């Protein structure tokens, strides 16, 4: 089974996709920002858009879908190359082993739920009790969701655009049906993280859209890709908001009914429901909108970096070693936050973030200088 390994050396700069590196780097910087500052009282009062609220799509909620968009882009790019070079068995075997490696890293980083304090307690729990307890929440976070979504779309990732889009639509419909049947209430009540066990169905949407973005860039180039990228962005953002309007108001008995929903980035005045943009529940409306938003941000980086001269070193550093930054930053944060209390004034919380950000950057930059990249 493949696990993370250290890669020494890098591809020639001419083979890198500047917009993708910069887009991924921006996403890492956004992750560092919201993961540190989001829970501070001052931010909650004055910049709530930097926190995850699970009742609407905040700025913080746009970050994770952008990772999936970037993964989808790279997934199709590398798989098509491997299919031509190595054949189906080796290419798809690599996808499977990479996904298993991500799940293993997820186990190490996130751990499992529950635990026992004695042998007798473990025997009493039994194997069914272990699976029921250990896999409810913690393990199902970003890396695990990427792994499961990658496996889920593996049958179609090398197929044509229509097949991939149909698969994404079918996955979204299945998620809606299961959520209505039981999963939404359970996910919000438990609560799960980033959509829980069935999230791979809805996280499929930004990953598939990333693969479509690759096709556009490969066939049309940066200039020819801008208009269709923005077109997809507008269509999906409108579709996501439209879906949220199916439950955008409340009936007299408190049940959801169609009505104009609060726009993205603004808190709603009603209780969350199946149609709410919620990262916690991994709702279809949220991930449809967020996929479109990801495409819009990527189009901006195509304009600035592929068609224009803008390349930020800080985005390059984080973009080329995103997994290392992801694994390191919670360790850095946990070293800094004991002396940055949650009720600290805004300037002090910002200073704490600056310290954590600088340490994380220095660590990842050191890896880059030595051409060390954490890859699967």
What does this structure look like?
It comes from Tautonia plasticadhaerens. Residues 16-182 form the Heparan-alpha-glucosaminide N-acetyltransferase catalytic domain. This protein has helices spanning 18-37, 41-46, 63-86, 88-110, 119-134, 142-153, 161-189, 199-245, 284-306, 313-320, 322-336, 346-369, and strands at 5-8, 249-250, 256-257, 372-375. The longest helix has 47 residues, at 199-245. Helix content is 66%, strand content 3%. The strands form 2 sheets. A two-stranded antiparallel sheet has the order 1-4. A two-stranded antiparallel sheet has the order 2-3. Helix 1 runs antiparallel to helix 3, helix 1 packs antiparallel against helix 12 and helix 3 runs antiparallel to helix 4 (88-110). The chain has 12 helices and 4 strands. The chain has one domain (5-375). The protein is globular. The chain is mainly alpha-helical and 376 residues long.
Overall helicity: 55-70%
What count of structural domains? 1
Rg to the nearest angstrom?
21 Å
First-residue to last-residue Cα separation: 11 Å
Strand order of the largest sheet: 1-4
* Main sheet record: 2 strands, antiparallel
Order of helices and strands: EHHHHHHHHEEHHHHE
Question: Helix count?
Answer: 12
Strand content: under 5%
Ranges where pLDDT stays below 50 over 5 or more residues in a row are: 1-6, 8-14
Global shape: globular
Count every beta strand, where a strand is a DSSP E run of 2 or more residues: 4
Compact description:
This protein is mostly helical and 376 residues long. It has helices at residues 18-37, 41-46, 63-86, 88-110, 119-134, 142-153, 161-189, 199-245, 284-306, 313-320, 322-336, 346-369, and strands spanning 5-8, 249-250, 256-257, 372-375.
